[in-house]
Design a protein that fits this description.
The complex is a heterodimer. By secondary structure, chain A is mainly alpha-helical. Chain A contains 22 helices and two strands. Chain A has a domain of 226 residues. In chain A, strands 1-2 form a two-stranded antiparallel sheet. In chain A, helix 9 packs antiparallel against helix 12, helix 13 packs parallel to helix 18 and helix 15 packs across helix 21. Helix content of chain B is 68%, strand content 3%. Chain B is mostly helical. Chain B is globular, with a radius of gyration of 28 Å. Among the domains of chain B are: 249 residues, no CATH class; 54 residues; 29 residues. Chain B has a three-stranded mixed beta sheet. Classes of the chains: A mainly alpha, B mainly alpha. Chain A: It is an enzyme of class 1 (oxidoreductase). Chain A: Its EC number is 1.6.5.11.
Chain lengths: 510, 653
């Protein structure tokens, strides 16, 4: 199976599905939903086959395909994945069907076309797969920008309160970042011998000054995308305005392009600059962890709160990447996956609560556990995953990031560890204010608040809960795939793990 | 699980500490964790369908675990090297970090398994009746089983990450059970407080684990204990202090004690099992397990001893001023665990003494908590000891069994506390120089104070005139399902001390580092005199309380002096937390939210507007007209060309 063009097919397939769905009659919204859901399941099935075909101990980049596009500039449709990209592709393939299922009624109330909503979700899937599968820098850039379009419409056309403002803010922030990257992409093409091929470019020597400027161009785009402090203020607005499903994809997958880009482009292409900028990046990560967690505690809106927790988590990922150890790096990549599952779940569950209540304000809830015990239970579980409780997948990644960072940078790791206390604070306080305590009398008057999880909603949350628990107890299948890719990246940067202090003393004595 | 199960290879002979691979019956110790966990999962997943029989499944799971624990214990006794290891699967393998999902069954783990499942079984049985009228009984048993599973993982893990796994797991179960009646704001707040304070300790424990990996390259017990001698003294001190922070959080020791009394918001069986007999002793387990680390640094031991001595006195003083029966017992738990910390801090042979006291305490404190539950059951959930009195006539079994617990905790001969607490007092007097007087004196004073406040509790509840509220006419004794566990635990309160004190120290010598010799110093006072002194202060304390309270007490709060007022307010520790952490934290959060909305967002918006050519344009962008994007695209194109030229011209090189 390894000769099968997995990546191009996976990129194109959802797009074809989107076209089919878009041209279904508006009068038959259910048919559009079913086709979209079925299509996303096919993509998932193909992704599983690809996962099985991937050789964890094989080449760094696998499933490589290349087709010429603009020969004069040497731009090609080149696709290839390493373990890091593979994991992200799996995350997309798992999340999209669940998001479609969760969004079943999200577009019903909208004045816009229902089939178009689901078509947009599939377009988004296609562009997201493309961005992770690209192995040509220009192709990556194109997907990076095109990805904005479906998300812009999902937020701007189907979103909630202040959706226009949020959509434009999201678009502009990303666009500005993208422009910096475009400049750097062209610069890279010039100094790299007029090619966009990623593998060729990793071999190029670049002078220190140029390397730093190019790094900065890419890094700014990725830092805005992730987002890292202080480029984060678009996310709470977008996260709040977006429909819950789109928000889950936004923070679960789209934002990961930022951290993925740093791992795939900044570190291997500009290793010296990466090391030079590392202290600054670590500082941004640390600020993000503490600052965003404190802000999450203080939020009065559920979706904004989840957005801020997400920014704090991205701080952990940033620290993990720039610590340059295999544990921290593997932890960071695993974090990207686990955060997609956990925060994805949290956003979807919060969406279910908000859909019932018709409000996302925390103060409009209170004691909801009495009315919807199961939903409250799932919210609590998602919260536990978010605070990285052992037994849930995020614990493994957070632990790896912290322990890996500690071996090379004790102060950073110790300060980051304070984040786990704050995480408990924002999760538990959120849970307390929404589901515990005296029952808010206004809640009982809302009819929908008396309906606990439906079968469809159970089908959405159950796979995510199962995956979070499975990877919490047995993360090896994923770490085995990530590990070689991270080790290769660490080699690109020229960093090796420090030996244990006592061990090295004993060796020195011998 | 079976497919993944693989048997451990014998640990590498890296140094002094080695564990054999588990085989035969002992290779199924993983079931100890799996059975309660499976039961909890079934109860949670089946939902209301399990309401009718769910509690019996919960009881049966713990019963099965107890039987398995007991047979495993006898198996272990027959082995030469009484420590076996079972590696279930590779948990985390990245670079040179290898964490085993593995278990260790050795004498220390075995006594904890028996305590957790044995006392746990009795309390589960009691809870069947106690929670009979609660609509959430099935959910209660699910959480209760989850707790036992996590606690067993905590004591059975063969490395620090497994310990941490169980450690946070019991924290979760504790949270769920404290805020079990989540509709009550006070219960929800108490649960959150417990989890947060525990997380402070957990963060310390986590950093301790990071230090182990950074310095020794491993978190497995055998490898850590074999190579801990190579660590610099300063590293050991920092490592130990961090582990101590974790231990203090879980065990309600100073400065992280404030959550434990509030945890009494949970149902009484929870207070008995989790917040008295088992979970709160996890800190003692951590220090005893890590004894090769703690014994390697004297300053560290001094800190542990000081925390123990300070907390034991604090618990006594506050406990003497409280009127809520469960809170008095909670502060007495804080105080008794202080004795255990004192013991493990003293090191050497005192490690085993602390474990003996821990086990004995598990019996008599569970006994008294369940007794308190029985009293509340008969008195319409009244908890104020000023509104009890004269109950000895109405609840004979509760009265007699509680009396056994009372005599045990104050250390009266021949009840179990005498055999478990008095040796710790003696050991404290065996320290060098003036610290012998300081810590020995504290332990002795604590014994007198314990006798005082526990006698006060006992007399005000069961003797003296009736001071009941009007709604109570005839308090009733609890049903058999509640009194039978009480009787069994009372028997334990009488006999366990002597049996444990004569057997456990020998048994524990096979656990790495716990076979310590008696201190080389003789006690500063002769042994017989110390024994006599501790009995004298006990009788004095108890007698004073009897004299003061045998005629009852006022039912309204009385004006009090400085010390009593301070004690009623938990020695102002809560006020301190509020002023130093809570209030500034809330202020900081609010200030940051303001800053983020106005400052950062405004700044970046302004910057973006500046790039785009004036803030007026930003406002037009926000109208969503796509034509205005042309400006940004043009700007971008110019930027690209500029960058392109700059690179070409070599300006940036």
């Amino acid at each position: 199976m390894s000769n099968f063009p997995f990546l191009s097919v996976l990129t194109v397939a959802p797009l074809v599905g989107a076209l089919v769905v878009a041209f279904l009659p508006r009068r038959r919204p259910d048919l559009a939903k079913q086709v979209a859901f079925g299509w996303s399941l096919l993509v998932l099935a193909l992704s599983v086959v690809m996962w099985v075909s991937f050789q964890a101990d094989g080449d760094r980049l696998q499933f490589r395909e290349s087709y010429p596009w603009i020969p004069t500039w040497d731009v090609n449709f080149t696709f290839a994945v390493d373990g890091i990209a593979l994991v992200m592709l799996m995350l997309i393939a798992v999340l999209v069907p669940l998001v479609i299922l969760a969004s079943w009624h999200d577009a019903d109330a909208s004045k816009r076309s229902v089939p178009a909503y689901f078509a947009l979700l599939l377009v988004l899937e296609s562009t997201m797969i493309g961005v992770f599968a690209a192995a040509d820098v220009f192709l990556f850039y194109v997907f990076f920008e095109v990805m904005l379009v479906p998300m812009y419409f999902l937020i701007g056309s189907y979103g909630g309160h202040q959706r226009q403002y949020a959509a434009v803010k999201f678009f502009l922030y990303s666009l500005v970042g993208g422009l910096f990257m475009l400049a750097a992409v062209i610069g890279l093409w010039v100094v790299g011998g007029k090619t966009f091929d990623w593998q060729t470019l990793t071999q190029v020597d670049i002078s220190t000054g140029t390397e730093r400027w190019l790094f900065l161009g890419f890094f700014l785009a990725f830092a805005i995308k992730a987002p890292f402090f202080p480029f984060h203020t678009w996310l709470p607005d977008a996260g709040r305005a977006a429909p819950a499903g789109a928000a889950a994809l936004l923070v679960g997958v789209l934002d990961k392009v930022g951290t993925f880009g740093i791992l795939r482009y900044c570190l291997p292409l500009f290793p010296e600059a990466s090391k030079w900028f590392a202290p600054w990046a670590l500082a941004l990560g640390l600020i993000g962890i503490l600052y965003a967690a404190l802000l999450a505690v203080g939020q009065s809106d559920l979706k904004r709160l989840v957005s801020y927790t997400s920014i704090a988590h991205f701080g952990f990922i940033g620290v993990g990447i720039f610590a340059f150890t295999t544990q921290a790096g593997t932890g960071a990549v695993l974090y990207m996956l686990n955060h997609g599952l956990a925060t994805g779940l949290l956003f979807l569950v919060v969406g279910m609560l908000i859909a019932r209540r018709g409000s996302s304000l925390i103060s409009d809830f209170g004691g909801a556990g009495k009315l919807v015990p199961l939903l409250a239970g799932v919210l609590f579980f998602a919260g536990l995953a978010s605070l990285a409780l052992p037994g849930t997948a995020p614990f493994v990644s957070e632990f790896l990031v912290l322990i890996g960072t500690f071996t090379v940078n004790k102060p950073v790791a110790v300060i980051a560890t304070l984040g786990i206390i704050l995480a408990a604070a924002y999760v538990l306080w959120m849970v307390q204010r929404t589901t515990q305590g005296t029952l808010n009398p206004e809640l009982t008057e809302v009819k929908a608040m008396h309906r606990d999880l439906t079968l469809r909603e159970k089908a959405v949350v159950a796979p995510l809960i199962a995956l979070i628990l499975l990877l919490g107890f047995y993360p090896k299948p994923v770490t085995d795939v990530i590990n070689p890719a991270v080790q290769a990246t660490m080699q690109d940067v020229g960093k090796t793990d420090p030996a244990p202090e006592v061990g090295s003393v004993q060796e020195a004595a011998q | 699980m079976d497919e993944i199960l693989t048997y451990a290879q014998a640990a590498e002979p890296a140094g002094a500490v080695t564990y054999a691979a588990a085989d035969g019956l002992l290779s199924s110790v993983w079931l100890l964790v799996a059975i309660p966990l499976a039961s909890a999962a079934i109860l949670l997943l089946l939902g209301r369908r399990a309401d009718r029989w769910g509690h019996w499944l919960g009881v049966a799971a713990i019963g099965a675990a107890f039987v398995l624990g007991l047979t495993s214990f006898f198996q272990l006794r027959g082995l030469e090297n009484k420590s076996v290891e079972l590696s279930l699967w590779d948990f985390i393998t990245v670079g040179n970090l290898r964490v085993d999902f593995g278990l260790l069954f050795d004498p220390l783990a075995a006594v904890f398994v028996l305590l957790i499942t044995g006392v746990g079984f009795l309390i589960h049985l009691y809870a069947v009746e106690y929670m009979a009228h609660d609509e959430g009984r099935r959910r209660f048993f699910a959480y209760f089983n989850l707790f036992v599973a996590a606690m067993l993982l905590l004591v059975l893990g063969n490395n620090y990450v497994m310990l941490y796994f169980g450690w946070e797991g019991v924290g979760l179960a504790s949270y769920l059970l404290i805020s079990f009646w989540y509709g009550r704001p006070s219960a929800a707040t108490a649960g959150k407080k417990a989890f947060l304070m525990n997380r402070v300790g957990d963060a310390g424990l986590a950093i301790g684990i990071f230090i182990l990996f950074a310095t020794l390259g491993t978190t497995q017990y055998d490898e850590v204990f074999s190579s801990v001698g190579g660590l610099a003294s300063g590293t050991v001190l920092v490592l130990g202090l961090l582990l101590l922070l974790g231990a203090a959080g879980k065990s309600g020791q100073f400065p992280l004690q404030a959550w434990l009394p509030d945890a009494m918001e949970g149902p009484t069986p929870v207070s008995a099992l989790i917040h008295a007999a088992t979970m709160v002793t996890a800190g003692v387990y951590l220090i005893a397990r890590s004894n090769p680390i703690f014994s390697a640094n004297e300053t560290l031991q001094l800190v542990v001893v000081s925390v123990g001595a300070l907390t034991l006195l604090m618990g006594c003083i506050i406990g003497a001023a409280k009127d809520d029966i469960k809170r008095v017992l909670a502060w007495s738990t804080v105080s008794q665990i202080g004795y255990m910390f004192l013991g493990v801090g003293l090191g050497g042979a005192a490690y085993a003494l602390a474990i003996v006291h821990l086990l004995a305490h598990g019996f008599f404190k569970a006994n008294m908590f369940l007794g308190a539950g029985s009293v509340m059951h008969g008195m319409n959930d009244q908890v104020d000891i000023r509104r009890f009195g004269g109950l000895s006539k109405y609840m004979k079994i509760t009265w007699i069994t509680f009396m056994m617990g009372w005599l045990a905790i104050i250390g009266m001969f021949p009840f179990s506390g005498f055999f478990s607490k008095e040796p710790i007092i003696v050991a404290a007097f065996e320290r060098e120089g003036w610290t012998a007087w300081l810590f020995g004196g504290a332990a002795l004073l604590g014994a007198g104070l314990t006798a005082f406040y526990m006698t006060r509790l006992f007399v005000l509840t069961f003797h003296g005139p009736k001071r009941w509220t009007e709604d109570i006419e005839h308090p009733h004794e609890s049903p058999k399902l509640m009194t039978i566990p009480l009787i069994l635990l009372a028997i334990g309160s009488v006999g366990a001390g002597f049996l444990l004190a004569t057997s456990v120290p020998d048994w524990l010598t096979a656990t790495a580092g716990l076979g310590g010799e008696h201190a080389e110093h003789a006690a500063v006072l002769p042994h017989w005199l110390l024994t006599a002194l501790s009995l004298v202060v006990t009788v004095l304390g108890a007698g004073l309380a009897w004299a003061l309270f045998r005629n009852g007490t006022a039912t309204a709060p009385q004006p009090a002096g400085v010390l009593v007022t301070a004690a009623r307010r938990n020695l102002y520790t809560d006020a301190f937390n509020e002023v130093v952490f809570e209030k500034p934290g809330i202020f900081l959060t609010r200030a940051l939210v303001f800053l983020d909305n106005r400052g950062i967002d405004g700044l970046v918006n302004g910057l973006a507007a500046g790039v785009g050519g004036g803030s007026g344009r930003l406002r037009r962008w926000q109208t969503g007209f796509v034509r205005s994007y042309a400006t940004s695209i043009l700007t971008g194109a110019l930027l690209v060309v500029a960058a392109f030229l700059a690179v070409q011209a070599g300006w940036l090189a």
